[in-house]
Amino acid sequence: MNLSTGLGVVPLDLDDATQVAAADAFVAGRADATPFHRPAWLKAIARGTGNRGDMLAAVASSGQIAGLLPLTHMRSRLFGQALVSSGFAVDGGILADDPAVIAALASAAEGLARDRGVGSVELRGGPLPGQGWTVHEGSHLGFVRPIAADDEAELLAIPRKHRAELRKALANLALRVEVGRDARLVRAHYDVYAQSVRNLGTPVFPAQLFCEVLSAFGEDADILLVLDGDRPVSAVLTLYHQGRVMPFWGGGVADARRLRSNELMYYRLMGHGRTRGMKLFDFGRSKTGSGQAAWKKSFGFDPEPLTYHSWSASGERRDINPSSAQYQRRVDLWKKLPLPVANLLGPLISRGLG
C-alpha cells in the first residue's frame, strides 16, 4: 500500500530473521511497547494455538520501520472470527505516533479483514485508529505501581487488611517458593492453572501455548511456583519487559484461599522482579467491578481505565464478554464439569477465544 507521504504498509515475514530483528528493535525503542507487540508473541501464539499471526509494518522510503501492528487471526465456531491485537493478550494495538502512519496501519488492517472474510478487527490498546472505529472504555481496568526498594517496604505498601493476610502466609513455614523454567515447573504450573480457571468457569488454554511462550521469550519469561510442602498450590507464568514484571497466567487451587498462597506468590514475585532490576509491577487487566479487580486494589494497586478499539464491516463484534448473559450461562455450565473433562475440552474451545 503506497502512501503520498512516502510510506508503505507491508506484512513482515515472521520467519525472516532480519525482518524480525528490525521489528524487535523498533519495539525495544518505544516506551509504550509491550511484549505483545513482539514477533515472539505472535509466533508463540501461532505455534501454541494454531491461530495465524501477522505483523503489519509501516515502512518509510528510507526502509526504516515507522509503525507496527501485530494481529492474530482468531477463528472459532462458537465465537466467530476476528483479527486481534494482540491475540491472547491484554494489550497491543497500533504502535506509532504519526497520524498518517496510524491511519495507514488501521486501513491496512481493515483491508486484511475484508480480504480474509473476517468480520471485525479488535485492538487492545494503542491510539485511536481513526474514523469508522468504535472506542470501548470502562470495561477493563489496568493495575500498575512501582516495585518498592526492599521486601519490608513492599510489605508496608500493601494496605493493612491485605497485609495481615499476607503475614499469615509468610508465617506458614510449610509454604515455599520455586522459580525457574524447567519441565517440572511447567507441568506444575499447568496443573494449578487448569484447576484455577475451571473453578472460575473458563476453558483452559492448550498446554503447548505456555511451552511456546516460555521458549519464544527465553529469559524474559519464567514460572514462580508456591508449594505447600510438596503440593503445588499457586503458580504464575510471568513476562519481563522493559523494566516491568508482568504476571500473566496465574492461579491457585481451591485450597489457595485458605493458605493465602496467591498473596505470597505475588509478593515473592515482586521481590524476584526487584532482583532482576525491574522497576514496575504490572498486575494486568481485570473486568471493571469484578472480584479480581477488587482483590488487586486491596493489594495496593490503583485501577486505571483501559481503552480498546474495534472495527467491523457489519457493525457487530464477537461476544466474548464474560458479563453477557449468554456467556455467563456457558461459565456456569463449565464450573460443573469434572476436571479431566474440562482439561480435555478446554483447549479445543479456548484456542478460538483469545
Automatic annotation (TrEMBL):
<dbReference type="InterPro" id="IPR038740">
    <property type="entry name" value="BioF2-like_GNAT_dom"/>
</dbReference>
<feature type="domain" description="BioF2-like acetyltransferase">
    <location>
        <begin position="161"/>
        <end position="297"/>
    </location>
</feature>
<dbReference type="InterPro" id="IPR016181">
    <property type="entry name" value="Acyl_CoA_acyltransferase"/>
</dbReference>
<protein>
    <submittedName>
        <fullName>FemAB family XrtA/PEP-CTERM system-associated protein</fullName>
    </submittedName>
</protein>
<dbReference type="InterPro" id="IPR017469">
    <property type="entry name" value="PEP-CTERM_FemAB-rel"/>
</dbReference>
<dbReference type="Pfam" id="PF13480">
    <property type="entry name" value="Acetyltransf_6"/>
</dbReference>
